[in-house]
Amino acid sequence: MSVDLKALDQALEQLREKGHKSTKTRRALIEILLREHGPFSIEDLQKRIAEDCDIATVYRNMSLFESLGLVQTVEFGDGLARYEWSGVGHEHHHHIICQRCHQVEQLEYCFVRELEKLVRERGYTQVSHRMEFYGICQSCQLAETHPA
Question: What is the pLDDT of residues 36-47, one digit of tens each?
């Protein structure tokens, strides 16, 4: 997959505008988040980054990216924070998580947008929501009915 260069350039420019350097590590992390969907744990990101980078650096950068609105934290009820792109080019979506194998699938459709409109009509600003679905995927169902 290719990287959305416009989104990459805008993210790096946003970093600079807020007084942060555009480092090789930050660029690499943004490229991973743009190229692959995720969501990624800190450990997943550390494994994917091509350069030698300690886990504390990945944590610090994800925290910075989150404060700038470039990433959002996604939690699937297992206590592990995962990150996915939420900056330029992000398409709002939800997830389906298999409770057995932990496979994550995207759901692009969102019926809650109409409810958000009602909330805004009541005078609220910066309205957002999160919703995840949990179930057992078809592969796990098949494995359950046809054990090896």
Answer: 877 999 999 999
pLDDT at residue 51 greater than cutoff 80: no
**Residue tagged 């609105």 (tokens):** 69
Furthest CA-CA distance within the chain = 57
Q: What is the Cα–Cα distance from 98 to 12, expressed in whole angstroms?
A: 35
pTM score: 0.75
CB atoms within 10 A of CB 39: 22
Residues near 96 by beta carbon (within 8 Å), at least 6 away in sequence: 104, 105, 106, 107, 132, 133, 134, 135
Q: At residue 29, what are phi and psi to the nearest 5 degrees?
A: -65, -45
Measured CA to CA, the distance from residue 21 to residue 55 in angstroms comes to 19
